[in-house]
Design a protein that fits this description.
The complex is a heterodimer. By secondary structure, chain A is an all-beta fold. Chain A has strands at about 5, 10-15, 20-25, 30-35, 45-50, 55-60, 60-65, 70-75, 85-90, 100, 105-110. Chain B is globular, with a radius of gyration of 13 Å. Classes of the chains: A mainly beta, B mainly beta.
Amino acid sequence: SQQGEEDPQALSIQEGENATMNCSYKTSINNLQWYRQNSGRGLVHLILIRSNEREKHSGRLRVTLDTSKKSSSLLITASRAADTASYFCATATSNDYKLSFGAGTTVTVRA
Amino acid sequence: GAGVSQSPRYKVTKRGQDVALRCDPISGHVSLYWYRQALGQGPEFLTYFNYEAQQDKSGLPNDRFSAERPEGSISTLTIQRTEQRDSAMYRCASSAHPSDEQYFGPGTRLTVT
């Protein structure tokens, strides 16, 4: 069963705008990882955030984690056409480290 | 350096045949994971190894599926007596240590006819 659930399922924005997507999960985690997938191709690792961290940045990406609400968000600033992709969150517990993925958020950036 | 590689990239097989999918993790990575991804969905866990030890195989759908990593490096996922419902993208990932980032390979697209 999949633990993470992304919201919204789909998002369409204009180039240059910011995109925010959320991930909710059910059980305590060790870490949460965000991935990007273009058109059914490979999964590209974006950011890992651990349960004792609240925010991480990588370039135009900002990830937050609220363990009390069991939720995370991914913000992409100043979006580009190349950001068009599906974005997945995946959680790992401390008992084992297998990732549990959500169904993803499909982001379309319009030129 | 080189990322995770998988072979073959595409495999078409007839129902009832056995298939072996190979994963070559990033050099030195302790943990290796197998996932399966259906179209429009996120990957689902199958099994994982730390070194050569299979730590968890709870995601393997049935006993037709097996995996090994005999020397703690390359891993093979074997599906015996394939069925059409086995058709999917099979993805392998590796991480330096169990709680670290998991890096995925390009996947093997399996089609059972």
